């Protein structure tokens, strides 16, 4: 059986509002490229249309500001702290929509190789994923905290 439901995108309220503002601005400035060279105008128009479609898709499939359960399981809307097998240091990032910008936190998409590998992992669980050059990287999930409970969420993103 095929899943026909679109994938839901997790967004903070602030990121959702920023996207709505950007969409309104793109609509408002739709004719502002008339002074550009005709070839440039076509390219600018295509870029604008692509961004409008991307934002509409994000907003149309958004779950806004609803923190996932604080159960230590990696899923969109969680701030993850990981340790890579080949490094002693850790990395902390939000598992969410990259195109939405979420403040100071680095954002990895759930559809990225790392995001796909970590989704569903529990604290302490080691996962592996393949990078574009074909090599495999091991990563251990150290912590998974809902965005709203993470210290970075205390300041507006």
From TrEMBL:
Q: Per its record, what are the GO molecular function terms?
A: DNA binding; RNA polymerase binding; translation elongation factor activity
- Which residue intervals are annotated with compositional bias (Basic and acidic residues) in the record? 38-47
Q: Does the keyword Ligase apply?
A: no
Q: Which Gene3D superfamilies match?
A: Transcription elongation factor, GreA/GreB, C-terminal domain
Keywords annotated in UniProt:
Elongation factor, Protein biosynthesis
TM ranges: none
Q: Where is this region: Disordered?
A: 24-47
Pfam families (UniProt xref): GreA_GreB
- The chain positions of domain Transcription elongation factor GreA/GreB C-terminal read 71-142
* Hydrolase recorded as keyword: no
Q: Biological process GO terms, please?
A: regulation of DNA-templated transcription elongation
- Top-rank taxon of the source lineage equals Bacteria
Q: What is this protein called?
A: GreA/GreB family elongation factor
Organism, by scientific name, is Saccharothrix texasensis
What is the phylogenetic placement of the source species in the record?
A: Bacteria, Bacillati, Actinomycetota, Actinomycetes, Pseudonocardiales
């Amino acid at each position: 059986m095929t899943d026909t439901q679109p994938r839901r995108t997790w967004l903070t309220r602030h990121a959702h509002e920023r996207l709505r503002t950007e969409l309104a601005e793109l609509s408002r400035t739709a004719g502002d490229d008339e002074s550009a060279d005709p070839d440039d105008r076509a390219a600018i128009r295509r870029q604008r249309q692509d961004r409008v479609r991307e934002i509409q898709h994000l907003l149309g499939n958004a779950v806004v500001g609803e923190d996932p359960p604080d159960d230590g399981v990696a899923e969109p809307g969680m701030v993850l702290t990981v340790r890579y097998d080949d490094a002693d240091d850790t990395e902390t990032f939000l598992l969410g929509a990259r195109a939405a910008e979420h403040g100071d936190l680095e954002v990895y998409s759930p559809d990225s190789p790392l995001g796909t590998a970590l989704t569903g992992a529990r604290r302490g669980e080691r996962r592996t994923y393949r990078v574009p050059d074909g090599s495999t990287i091991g990563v251990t999930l150290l912590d998974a905290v809902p965005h709203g409970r993470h210290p970075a969420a205390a300041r507006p993103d």
